[in-house]
Amino acid sequence: xxxxxxxxxxxxxxxxxxxxxxxxxxxxPAHTVSTLVVAGAVLAGFDLxxxxxxxxxxxxxxxxTSFGNSLVHGAMAEAERTGIVGILTGIFEVTSAGIxxxxxxxxxxxxxxxxxx
Length: 117
Description:
Elements: H1 2-23, H2 29-45, H3 49-56, H4 58-61, H5 65-82, H6 86-112
Helix pairs in contact: 1-2, 2-5, 5-6
């Protein structure tokens, strides 16, 4: 039960930061998402995101900051294996499934539903 509480708190705090960036920082949604992805990547670079995942579970893996974490882990793992070129290929290897799913499901939704605009 305690794990659910911390997942809710940490995920909520990440969302609060995003909302503050939108409302107080007057950032556009695209800038806000980019900032959160970069924040996740920076935290992963300093080995701080994995302990957050261990502590909060889905509260840290569901928000967009986790995407930045995935980018860094994919790049670093592939760079160790294949060298500097692995930085680029590792990013694509780790994130391609999620991006592909988003494209496929968006396409299917566009086929099934009519736009109101």
